[in-house]
Amino acid sequence: MRAGLARLHPWLAEFLIFGFKQAWAALFGGVMLALLIVTKLVWQPGWWLARYDFLTLAALAVQAILLATKLESWREARVILLFHVVGTGMELFKTHVGSWSYPEPSLLRIGGVPLFSGFMYAAVGSYIARVTRIFDLRYVHAPPNAWVLALGLAIYVNFFTHHYLPDIRPALFLCAALIWWRTRIIFTVDVAPRWMPLLLAAALTAFFIWIAENVGTATGAWLYPTQRVWHMVSFGKFGAWFLLIVLSFALVSLVHPPRPPDGTERP
Q1: Between 109 and 45, where is the model more confident?
Q2: Which pTM does this prediction carry?
Q3: Fewer CB atoms near the end CB (10 Å): N or C, the chain?
Q4: What is residue 265's predicted lDDT score, i.e. its pLDDT?
Q5: Sequential DSSP letters for the chain
Q6: What does the pLDDT look like over 75-115, one tens digit per residue?
Q7: Whole domain around residue 92: which residue ranges?
Q8: Domain total for the chain?
């Protein structure tokens, strides 16, 4: 592989390495999306095991394989567990108020929430934890962790309270911008360190969640009330996914506190 890349322009070679490493960081999420697609294509209603239950068992098996082969660390597994708990809690509420639903039957569920759904949130946590390690992420002008955790808590609470109280998302967007407007992520693709504004990184990640959301609804894994006939999820939900990424950074920081540069890298 290195020999082939050596024949390319350095910028193109680095871009390809960047793409490969990003895909590697998103391994757990990629496997989950692949399972959604494959099961949608092959699953039959009369089979003895419900599709949702298979997805839950498959997610557990994938997690066990990643840990056994050391493709994922136990530290990253703790992130996944944390995201699973936080995500399932939100799923229980959101399905109760009708924000979205899971139309297929299953046994492995809590209320109206099949247990595989928590792994979709866990995939986001897995990606952020793995990308931190794979790209050796460092932060310049990182805000105090207490600020990030407080913002993450406010975002999580607002996901619930905006159904009954005024939606404070505009204030949350403003807080995220004020807290992180100077923050830069330093990452190493191959040899030379590169940098990117953290807010841009969060926006790009939210965009890919939008793509994953469309895969999920297209395969019928979950549906929004307006999707009796499937159509793409509105890009107007981008703001909610951006806030989810901010919350995700806060949760991951509990296990992977932001590290400063070593003194040789300057954005």
Answers
A1: 109
A2: 0.88
A3: N
A4: 41
A5: -HHHHHTS-HHHHHHHHHHHHHHHHTHHHHHHHHHHHHHHHH--TTSSS-HHHHHHHHHHHHHHHHHHTTSS-HHHHHHHHHHHHHHHHHHHHHHHTTS-B--S--SSEETTEETHHHHHHHHHHHHHHHHHHHTT-EEESPPPHHHHHHHHHHHHHHHHHTTTS---HHHHHHHHHHHHTT-EEEEESSSSEEEEEHHHHHHHHHHHHHHHHHHHHHTTSSB-TT-SS--PPPGGGHHHHHHHHHHHHHHHHTTSPPPPP-SS---
A6: 888 888 888 899 999 999 999 999 999 999 999 999 999 99
A7: 2-253
A8: 1
Say if residue 264's pLDDT is above 50.
no
Q: Is the pLDDT of residue 152 over 90?
A: yes
Sign of CA dihedral 130, 85, 51, 227: negative
- Long-range contacts of residues 17-26, Cβ cutoff 8 Å, at least 24 apart: 17/189, 17/190, 18/189, 21/134, 21/135, 21/189, 22/131, 24/130, 24/134, 25/127, 25/130, 25/131, 25/134, 25/135, 26/123, 26/127, 26/130
pLDDT tier at 6, thresholds 50, 70, 90: low
Euclidean distance between CA atoms 243 and 129, whole angstroms: 17
- Residue 264 forms part of a structural domain: no
Name the amino acid, one letter, at 127. Y
Asked whether residue 260 is assigned to any structural domain, the reply reads no
195 within domain boundaries = yes
Residue of 30, 93, 40, 56 whose CA lies nearest to 230 = 40
Q: What is the mean pLDDT of residues 138-167?
A: 94
Instruction: State yes or no: pLDDT of 234 exceeds 90.
Output: no
Task: Say if 124 falls within a structural domain.
Answer: yes
Write down the residue that tokens 């390690």 correspond to. 133
